[in-house]
Design goal:
Blueprint (H helix, E strand, L loop, with lengths): L3 E7 L2 E6 L4 E5 L9 H24 L6 E8 L9 E8 L6 H18 L1 H8 L10
Antiparallel strand pairs: 1-2, 2-3, 4-5
Helix pairs in contact: 1-2, 1-3
């Protein structure tokens, strides 16, 4: 089971860490050098798509294939809940013929829909438990 610990390191500043030594800085909008929690959610969705697509793309193109993913939140300004997440996956498929491109796009789409935990969870929604210890 994966776990992430978030600790306060200053005013509106936090650090998230995992058991493998990874760290990322979190903060409110405008906090220098930090991601907001929503930006981390978007990064998780984009990262999941990129990681899922990478092997499929590299095997059919080149080892240094372009896999560029952008995730954007969909919500009215000031809203405190997302209406959705739009993900764009940019691949350099210029070395493939039209049929191979269409096949690869279909394979990547199926893989993301089948195994990308983050995007699947966002689509299906999930319960979030909160235990407050004091």
């Amino acid at each position: 089971m994966a776990a992430v610990r978030v600790r306060r390191i200053g005013t509106h500043a936090f650090t998230a860490s995992n058991e493998r030594g990874g760290h990322v800085r979190l903060g409110r909008v405008g906090e220098p050098g930090a991601f907001t929690p929503v930006e981390l959610l978007l990064a998780a969705a984009a990262g999941c798509v990129g990681i899922t697509a990478e092997d499929l793309v590299v095997r059919r193109t080149t080892p240094d294939a372009v896999v560029d993913v952008v995730a954007e939140d969909v919500r009215p300004v000031g809203a405190h809940a997302l209406d959705g997440v739009d993900i764009g996956l940019d691949l350099d498929l210029s070395g493939l013929d039209e049929r191979a491109r269409a096949q690869l796009v279909a394979v990547v789409r199926r893989a993301v829909e089948a195994v990308c935990t983050v995007t699947r969870t966002l689509k299906e929604s999930t319960d979030v438990g909160l235990t407050i210890r004091g």
